[in-house]
Amino acid sequence: MNTITKYVVLLTLCFIVSNVNAQETEKDSTTTTIPYRENGFRIDKLELLKKTIQEEEREFLKKEVEFINQRLDKGEITKEEAEQLKKEAAQKRALNIENRLAIVDNKIELLKRNDGLYDENNDETLSFGISLGEFNGFKINRNNRPRKYDKRTTSDLVFAIGFNNAIGDGQKIGDEYSFLGSGFVELGWAWKTRVFEESNAVRLKYGFSIQWNKLTPKDDRYFVQNGNTTTLEAFPSELKESEFRVTNLVFPVHFEFGPSKKVERKNYFRYDTSDRFKIGIGGYAGFRIGTQQKLRFKEDGDRVKQKIRRNYNVSPFVYGLSAYVGYGGVGIYAKYDLNPLFEDQSFDQNNLSLGFRFDLD
Prior knowledge:
The chain has 3 helices and 15 strands.
């Protein structure tokens, strides 16, 4: 019996060893075929990359020469200075080609020299980096192109928030709507273009924004729409919350005035207004994209929350005046709707907002 057991164990071990050897053979076969094919594919891509680098640097040199000619035409530099700048630009681009091609050639040699798939990084785009310890300041990539010599138009995010109200003839702010409970929010994108070629004293600022204007009626009242008429009426029970919100899509346009600092570099210049006072005067026009009334109250001991979406005869088009005074990216902002809040009413009210504006350029 013991002899039979020994034979069974021996046969089992032989089966296991042969199975392992087969797996290793299969694994070796995989690692000797796929990596070679993969390396060859990556080498082909790097060879194409070398041609792209040369074309790219030549295109960058062409743009730099155009910028230098612009400065020469404007009389900012002499002909001799222009020739010197062109020579320096050509030398810089020639060295860029030499260095960038050396990086690619080294990578190709690394792939050729190693049998397996040697992957020191997984970046196969037109981007190369060199880092020493924590230093990552030297990088060559497709964005390594010359800056535009004169950038007259810039863009930035616009965000505004503050108090909102609606007033009519004989009314003051806070008569009909809670001053602290009513507010507005504006979020948009704006472009800023220098009006004059040789001065940045006047800028045209334009873009688009979404405005949320909220009104909170006082004295437990809410809006009721009866056909073409919208009125404020007392709610049958005590209101925990009464909010009326109008959402508009508008297209603001402002003339912005203020000093700026001209920052001149070797191949470009910019006007900096980050630490300067600015004044913007203009207006906006657009259309309503939503109206909602939110009510919270108790009914038969239950808490009820209603969100009612209907037009409430709110004016479908909105237009008004706006202005801001600021320093850097922060300012005081005011806007006033010239259109009445509700159309075809016996008593007109106009929306008025005051708050803070943040231009994150």
